[in-house]
Design brief:
Number of strands: 3
Structural class: mainly alpha
Number of domains: 1
Distance between the termini: 47 Å
Number of helices: 7
Largest sheet: 3 strands, mixed
Strand content: 5-15%
Oligomer: single chain
Order of helices and strands: HHEHEEHHHH
Amino acid sequence: MKRDQFLARVDEAMASIPDEFRQALTNIAIVVEDEPTPGQLAEVGVEPPDTLFGLYEGTPLTEREWARGNVLPDKITLFQGPIEESADDEDDLVRAIGETLIHEIGHYFGLSEDEIEDIEQRYWYGDEDEDEDEADDDGEAT
């Protein structure tokens, strides 16, 4: 797929992210590259043949100090090659882009891998933790 077509799919995926999250994204660049570099893979401990779909580089909101200013934007890089190779069709491609964006935006907001994976399971697959729906003797959710 040509880069401009892929970028159009990125725009579609961004539009699917709730407004309150999109509006909270400040001083961040979202870029598309063909493939992750060996340095980027090493930075996050990924060894070939494994790869990355996306990478957040910056300081998460939860780690920023109050006097932060005059800094380059944080960056989310989407890797077109691995995303395309994973997709079965056009709908799957948009879903993979969306999942990757949500994952990397989660890092921007300071979420851990476990927290992001939990959100992904609920958002993309509708899986709910059964304990969340059960009530204890006081009528409160556990």
